[in-house]
From TrEMBL:
Subunit annotation: Consists of a catalytic RNA component (M1 or rnpB) and a protein subunit.
Keyword terms of this UniProt record: Coiled coil, Endonuclease, Hydrolase, Nuclease, RNA-binding, tRNA processing
InterPro entries, per the entry: Ribosomal_Su5_D2-typ_SF, Ribsml_uS5_D2-typ_fold_subgr, RNase_P, RNase_P_CS
Transmembrane segments: none
Family note: Belongs to the RnpA family.
Lineage: Bacteria, Pseudomonadati, Bacteroidota, Bacteroidia, Bacteroidales
Coiled-coil boundaries: 101-128
Keyword tRNA processing among record annotations: yes
Record GO terms (molecular function): 3'-tRNA processing endoribonuclease activity; ribonuclease P activity; tRNA binding
Source species: Coprobacter fastidiosus
Keyword RNA-binding appears in the UniProt entry: yes
Protein's recorded name: Ribonuclease P protein component
GO biological process: one example: tRNA 5'-leader removal
Length: 141
């Protein structure tokens, strides 16, 4: 049975790790999300460490930002197995940030559907990157 908890170890914190994520990470957009991710070597027995960011520029009230953050974290908690199962089998780990781009508060079902699409796309990108990294290079002789 899948573990549906979102533990403290799965939450990305620490200025150094977050700065490293934004300086050397890759990103893509699945509207209304932008994801920034990077592979890490120190796994801490956790395949994915993540955090959610909602810009204060778009949502002035903390109540609205917290509502969106809670919805996104809940959708991630319920669907993280899409990504974590693959990462555990490949013995890789990720740091990732989910940034909310929309100017309106979307309902939970829409957020969850888009997050599933995002996790599926991220899974494909990570699999592709790990396959390229593990592939032996041909000799030029």
């Amino acid at each position: 049975m899948a573990n549906f908890k979102l533990t403290q170890a799965e939450r990305l914190c620490g200025k150094k790790r977050i700065d490293a994520l934004f300086t050397s990470g890759n990103s893509f957009i699945v509207y209304p999300y932008r994801i920034v991710y990077r592979s890490v070597s120190d796994t801490d027995n956790v395949p994915v460490s993540m955090f959610v960011s909602i810009p204060k520029k778009r949502f002035k009230r903390a109540v609205k930002r917290n509502l969106i953050r809670r919805r996104i974290k809940e959708a991630y908690r319920k669907n993280k197995h899409i990504l974590t199962d693959t990462l555990q089998s490949q013995e890789t780990a990720l740091d990732m940030a989910i940034l909310y781009l929309d100017r309106e508060i979307l309902d939970y079902q829409t957020l969850e559907k888009k997050l599933k699409d995002l996790l599926q796309k991220l899974k494909e990108k990570v699999c592709k990157e790990s396959c390229e990294k593990n592939r032996p290079k041909p000799n030029d002789s």
